[in-house]
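Sat 14:20. Reprocessing the chain from the morning session after the first attempt stalled halfway. Input below, unchanged.
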Amino acid sequence: MTVYARIDISFPDQRRESHQLANEAITIGSAPDDTIRVPAACLAQGQIRLSRGDSSVTLRNLAEDPSLIVDGRLLPVNQSRQLGDVANIRAGALSIQFIRSSDGPTVSMRALTEITQPSALGFRASLASGALNVWPYSSASTEVSITNLTDEAAQFRVETAGLPAAWTSPSRLAVAVESADTVDILINIKPPAGLELAPGEYPLTISVSRLGEVEARVQLALLVRLGRCAGLSLALDPPNLRQQRVFSLHLLNLGNDDLSLKLAACDPSSLLDLNLAQDEIRLKPKGRAAIGGSVAPKRRPLLGQPSEIPFAILAKAAEPNDYLVALPASLAVKPLVSNRALIAAASAIIALVLALAALLHQPPQPSITSFALSAKQVARGTPVSLTWAAGNAERFFVEVERAPLAELPADAATYTLDTGDYRDPIEIALIAVRGDAADIRSLRLNVFQPVTIHRFETDKSSVPRGVGAELTITWHVSGAAALDIALPVGFETIHEASAGDEGEIVIFGKAADEVVISLRAVDELGTAVERAIAIAARAPECRPIEDALLYTGPDPRYRRANYAQQNVPVLVNGVTVGADWLRVELASGDHGWGRLRDFDCAGFDPAGLKVVSDIPPLPTETAAPAAEIFAGS
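Finished this time. Tokens:
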């Protein structure tokens, strides 16, 4: 059993990626030949290199920018550090969590049912390991071995219970095993990103049974040890600060345990007034919080060029996590008077007088007094209305994620935003402009992907009643956080496969009446979309290969009753014990018995029909009727 180390990368836009460290070495950066490519704005070329040894993983800083922090400590340029089982890495605008799992020896585990499995079962089942260590966002696996002790091939069903269905893959399947052969099945355990369980030990039961024989069952026990995972995501709203601004600090606990944090604002240049509404907070797993803050320059320069003053928000996790996350930010400060205006004023007395007049008589400044969205959270493609009130504006600009979207006249007060091109939280900014002056307001809008059922269908519109039949169900559903397919009574899964938003299930069973298969998909907000397929149950039909004689009983010694015309479908509702004679019903309602060899029963196996037991006795030799002649015989 091999378990690879794993890294989880959180981007500034709250997007998240997970990667297994299957290669001996990988690089993370913006160059075309980097193993994991990220935007250049997030990370410089060749920023990080991860090398995997026999029992350790080493991190090396290959960037010119030395701002690489590992578990709260700076890693200098061209230096390496060996990582522990879990490490928190801050590189540029990226937050990276490293999780390492180790390879361990496997130990065969006995079944729960008995110390020695009875040979009467006809098979044996065992686990490669009795315990399994796994961490959030990583995966681990073990093998279930099934040995067929009988003289014939058999099918077995494997099911798991005790953990959420999304944790185990597969959660159920059917497998065929030849006589005296052994088949190994890989059971994969992968806790999903939305954890529901705290760190600890959880039992998983794996049941192995022969299809159709509920009593022939073996239960195996696997102890899953869920490890502790720590992580934190920080974001400023708005992300780009201009002049004097109030901001919100958004925090998200990415781990699976409670997280206590101490917060602080760091101003290396001592040029800013920085304030946070609180300096401590405690977050539950997947907990979110928003903390208010403000930043302003202590003194605005009279002359010069606009400048960016850097600062950072620091979050330090308490024991046992003990790591430091730094969120870099900056404040754009514009001087009171530009260099160009000063040079023009100094060139002539007239220009100086005009400049002084401009200073003494400032034109009205544009001001946005209110800015609102019709909704804070919408499905992708839903229009959102922007409304505002403002004064002294000559024109307005609307930006989305700092990209210009629309220019509007001074009398505009509304704008409709089409969200079809966006997903995840976006920043919407309104800019009021008058001359060189501007006022800006921004709001956040969460755009989520709604559930869409593109395809949900079966390969048959009807199945023969009372006869074993196989159905293939396929689907294509996008935007689903959870998906469930309810199977009809009397049917069981014999094959299941999925890839991305598409999947397929093959089921087998007998239909007594109409068969209904339903699909239920739930989006990330809990909204459900359902779809159902109704499949008719028809009487089984066969076609005579040629004109076929029918008798009053399943033997040529019975009296001739009628005949079935070539290629004209007839209903069949019973067979003899050996399945060599069919009980046939004609379109006229007449019944009779015909040889199976004279009929083509495509689409089902006649041996699955009901065996008829109330067969009339054979006529005696003396009572044999005279030969009858039928048309077409």
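Residues 102-116, 626-633 have pLDDT under 50 and may be disordered.
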